[in-house]
Amino acid sequence: MALAAAPSGAAAASHTTNPTFNKDVLPILQKNCQTCHRPGEVGPMGLLTFQETRPWAKAIKAAVLSKKMPPWFADPHFGQFLNDRRLSDADVKTLVTWVDGGAPEGDPKDKPLPIRWREGWNIRPDVILQTTKPMTVPATGTLQYTYIVIPTGFTKDTWVTAAEIRPTARSVVHHMSAIVRPPGEPWLRDAKPGEPYIPNEASKEGTPDSNDPQAGLIDANDEFLVGYAPGMQAQRFDIDHSAKLIPAGSDIILQVHYTTNGKTVEHDQPRIGLTLAKEVPPKRFMSAVAMNYHWTIPPGDPNYEGHARLTFGEPVELVFIQPHMHLRGKDMTINLVYPDGRTSTLLSVPHYDFTWQVIYYLAKPLMLPAGTKVEITAHWDNSANNPYNPDPTKSVEWGNQSWDEMLSVPMGVVFNRD
Questions:
Q1: What pTM was estimated for this model as a whole?
Q2: Which of 1, 91, 187, 398 could join 87 via S-S bond, C-beta 3.0 to 4.6 A?
Q3: pLDDT tens by residue, 233-252
């Protein structure tokens, strides 16, 4: 995953009056677009060559002028982020001028060398864990969360610097989450390794207060490792000399949520790739989450407000945040309240988009003293004016399905290993 900061809004290299694809456009696509727009990735078309790109010239112009592409939803007035995908003003002008000028190819000698993309992965995995049986997704119906236990076989504590989930049938994947279950933990103890397992009925409705170890609710001792959703890339854990810990003898539990699309899809066999630290790091990367289950969105409400909060009991370095709601999600603001009373806005997403699950990596780790509060304010649009609203006549509560709702903010924190 490329985390290099883009020169958003900055005055980049001098603008070319008559840009060509080979000399001026292709470098922009290589830097900003080809991560997704290449075979096997989420983009609906490839943008590797002139022949692939030329039919989409007018669509590219419309997408960059409207800022629909590259997808980036953070208000630029708050926070700086390492993976900021916004194009510079100069790059937008180059693309628009190229299209308006007839989208010429230019001299082949001007082409930069093609990027050697790693087929099948955005990381270079040292270890690949895979489900043993392909999954079949039916053409219709509501599918519950399914869990698959994957033994790691790790005989010693293992430190992970990056991880990525690669489903083989993306069109039917709502999301996947890999969770570390340390040895001896009772969570999902009845699930057999390699066998798809659907938890007890209570968890199917997303009941957050169930204490049943057979339910699909993660225990405090089980840690989120890596996730997959449309638009989500590989996740890195080697920020400021850190890594994630998988204790010896742990299992990885893969939570799978499929959605039907009218066609039977067979043979989805997800893989989890891990890159490993060469030595024990001085710092540990761990996941945290602020969430709230207790709210009900009234039918037709265009701007229902919800809140969540989390207080850090120890000093940590905050390295990423990820707003998460479902189809009625409208906006979210994440504020910090320091022990001395100071406040600051960490992230504002004024136009939340459920189809892009963006993880916002901070430009540099933010040191938070013990007692710092993370306070979240979010709004949902449950009205008929929301084109994505499954049913504006329905009261909506917390639930696993996309026609239900959620309010959560996963975060990545780093602290001294000891």
A1: 0.79
A2: 91
A3: 789 999 989 999 999 999 99
